[in-house]
Amino acid sequence: MGRVAELAGVSVRTLHHYDEIGLVRPLGRTAAGYRTYSADDVERLREVLAYRRLGFGLREVAKLVDDSSTDAVAHLHRLRGLLLERRHRVDAMVAAIDKEIEARAQGLLVTPEAQLEMLGARLYDAIGGAYPATRRTEPRIAAQIWNALGDAQTVLNVGAGTGSYEPGDRDVTAVEPSAVMRGQRPAGSARCVAAAAESLPFEDRSFDVAMAVSTVHHWGDPIAGLREMRRVARRVVVLTFDTDEPGWQDRFWLTRDYLPEFAAVLREFPSLAGMTEAIGARAEPVPVPWDCADGLFEAYWRRPGAYLENHMRRAMSVWTRVGPDAEQRAVQSLGDDLRTGRWAERNSDLADLDTADLGLRLLIA
Questions:
Q1: For the segment 62-119, what is each residue's pLDDT rounded down to a tens digit?
Q2: Fewer CB within 10 Å of terminal CB in the chain, N or C?
Q3: Model's pTM, two decimal places?
Q4: Do strands 355-356 and 288-289 pair parallel, antiparallel, or not at all (unpaired)?
Q5: For residue 213, what is the enclosing H or E element?
Q6: SS3 state at 359
Q7: What are the DSSP E strand ranges found in the chain?
């Protein structure tokens, strides 16, 4: 244990603590009874320490390293993405600071907008690094999406992000404008083109189907992007959100009771009717399973404690959109209600539900 602690740059006491809480528990023993670490133990320790140094808490780290769907290579890709995102953000902040120092040295007025430049990266560049840790393909949602693809062989995935929901048995081309997201796509994934949905660099009807999953609300002009998808593909499949239903903000307890600002986030979002009309689509509900593997905004409707975890929220664009004040207030209020039991009393009807309709809709054209 002493040698492992020395190589890892941690104390023996830290390793003892990891053993006690079951985070890294070496089973081997020397003849004298000292702990010995196998290759698998060292690999797990490496993952634990890497996530710790990225700022994750022990409980969060345990969930990450115990994820049975993630192997050593997937962990490496995830860590690499998190590190690249951090490097990207630091480089951007240094460049912004250098720019302001130069301006002030020349006696130039630095506007409030310029002072905030170091914090104003593109939305996906700001939240993208958290995606590999919590945003994974949910098999039941994937089945519904892939069923809608039908017999399509060539698929264009628009706003593809890190590649969730890309079918492995089709010829897929991905489109993603964010360098951070493109950099986190796993090795061996579909080729990815740097482009925006509103201006797809493909000929008319180049693909059997164009798909877009939980991305339309990030586009500058959603209707234009949907029409572009219709232009380059014979069919279109889009997972989006319905704001047409009266009182739609009250479908989800989180937006109803803790985050009313969510309504403002989607204030300019096109109506479901407008989107279906733009591409000649029909809409079908997409229920969210109670144990949804994809950490989208609605995923934890029966697991409210997840919204108290910072790394969970960081992979949800909503929190970036509403701002830190609203986020802090919502998290504090939810935490209080969970501790007092008020949340459980108010939402007792959810305990026996396996799925919930929270407004996700699949457009099929």
A1: 887 887 766 777 777 667 766 655 665 565 566 667 777 877 788 877 776 556 544 4
A2: N
A3: 0.63
A4: antiparallel
A5: strand 207-213
A6: coil
A7: 28-29, 35-36, 154-158, 171-175, 191-193, 207-213, 233-241, 282-285, 288-289, 355-356, 360-364
